[in-house]
Predict the structure.
Amino acid sequence: MSAPGWRPRDLVKGFRPRTPREGADAVVQNFVLHAFPVRVTKKALGWLTSGWLGTISLHLFLVLTLTGAVLLFIYVPSVERAYASVKDIEFVTSFGGWLRGTHRIAAHLMVIVVVLHLVRVFLTGAYKKEGPPGAYRPLNWWVGLVLLLLTFFLSFTGYLLPWDQLAFWAITVGTQIAASVPLIGEEIRQLLLGGTTVGQPALIRFYVLHCFVLPALVIYLVAYHMWRIRKDGGLAATDRVVEDAKAQARVVPPAPGKTYTLMGATEGGTVQAHTPVALIERESTPAIPAIVRRAFATFVLTLAVCSLLGVMLPAPLEEPANPAVTPNPAKAPWYFLWLQELVSILTFQVGDVTVDGAFLGGVLLPGLLVLLLAAWPLLDRSPAAAVGVWFHSSRKVQNRVFLALLFATAVLTVIGTFLRGPYWAWMWPWDAPPAPPTWM
Amino acid sequence: MSEPGTTRRGFLGRSATIAVVVGLVGHVIAWLRSLVPNVLYEPPMKRRLGAPDQFPTGRTYVAEHNVFVIHDTRGFRALSAVCTHLGCSVGAKQEGYHCPCHGSVFDAEGVNTEGPAPRPLPWHPLSWRGKALVVDLGTTVDADTVLDPKPKGGSG
């Protein structure tokens, strides 16, 4: 069975309606045809244009949803049974350890790929407000920032669920950083934990956030994120293709094909109405099957990488959570170690006053970074010619500052991950761990 | 004709808008408020530590309640083992305490001397319940508050 005018093989073979009626029917009745534009520029399809990092992020989210759904059937979110059920998944359930390993690796990769996606969008100026009429790309940049924060928060909430020592102390430290917000910090911490200590109320809250609230938000926002790409006239690189075509005037731009607006309710029409397809006919190709094939290929590749790494790097499971014994050193998840490093560095004494690093490094500095990223589309003064171009010369300074901040974050993360030993003291990887003190 | 905004239609429209906004805001407030617990099923803050002979002269760590009991010539005192930085449990070292998470160091009296901890470790009041020591983790006292080494009215 298939919708009128549409056969499954059209998705991969390309869709060639026999009559205009058939084509119109298919577009209206088929989700995939409706989700993608009619034509897409070859430039936007290029692997080096975007790295397909946004698509890969979504694929990773899909892998996480699928493996997570399976784990959901076995995991029990109670402090008495959580650890045992994860141990069951790891050692008793068929393929359980592999599924859990794949889920964990996909989560780590998603943090990395989503950050790289942001880096790509920044370095190509793809968030800029200058664009075709009807486009406003800063909006999608802001949605993307929220999705980045959701990705961190999803990963962080998943961290607690195994209820082992790693989980318990990472959450203890993480929520204590939230408590250093002035005035309402302790209230925020207790709202997150549902109590004053990391216990059953905290576990169920993190579980519901991790398995329902945050994924639901991600699904809604991703749908909007992708719809906005079309409303903004495609990837930013498309702007340059259209402008070049206009400049070379190989085709005289015809009057906009669509002069009406959506149900007569909006002003100005859409980007598509102002970008006659004929103008970029030679530089573009039918979106189906071009996008479908590439999206499928990247999904298969993503799944393969996650599955292989899931076998090669099994997820750790430490001893059951024990509030009385803090592991030494106790580390937050790796993507928060730059924050933990900042928290540790930024606490110092000036005379009798102790500067609170938990607030400076854990709340104020990351908060300012997010605010700066959010405000950047409004502050950026580079010209429209820089939109969709890697390392445009007019963006030299801001790109360097951005990369410097990124590099500093990476260095702090590496220090926190590999160069901090017991008591958070500096330790080279080749140093022998210090002998346990005799008085203990 | 009446003024625009004073018509019956305008009045009903505004009333409906206000009713909808109040209704939606009310729901959101109820959702958020329901997430703030009214009762905490957590262990009570007063913890029974046991008979004083379990705490010989010097320093004893009670892992279960995350507290150090210090017994000297003056009597008993209880020092919190919860780091004032981010809440990890500090470990004892020869003189003082050391936090494994971010390397804070405290001296023998719990005063922060190195690392990120912003405040000294707090002291908790001890009391006798029968012949057993009881610590109140919910309140703090200054470092000079010492519990007499003999139970009040007890034979010792």
User: Anything to note?
Assistant: The mean pLDDT of chain A is 85. Chain A touches chain B at residues 169, 172-173, 176-177, 190-191, 194-197, 199-201, 323-330, 340, 343-344, 346-347, 354, 356-358, 422-425, 437, 439-440 (CB under 8 Å). Chain A has one domain: 23-244+287-394.
